Predict the structure.
Amino acid sequence: MNSLLQTLYFTNQLRKAVYKMPTESDDSTRSVALALQRVFYELQFSDKPVGTKKLTKSFGWETLDSFMQHDVQEFLRVLLDKLESKMKGTCVEGTVPRLFEGKMTSYIKCKNVNVSSTRVETFYDIQLNIKG
């Protein structure tokens, strides 16, 4: 999770959008947006290690869940979903899909009959098989 948060922090357009999200009226214990703003702020200005406890708690993950190893892909999906929802209706709406969404086109053509089919699907992550 820490390496993912550092990667997101160094994605300049995302970091700027996160800072621009309005969080003034958010519940400080439940707001993923506010917790991520704090993590990014600490990464930017602190010389000390940055804690992620408030961020994981804002996800609604109980204490026991925090100690379990969450899949980083799952964490990213939940985080991006919450950010995308929070950004709706603001000046940074559309940032998440613009930065992270891809499109895949599936094309099928029948050899025996002159019929073809095309389908476009959006995705936020790609599964890679790693040998080793």
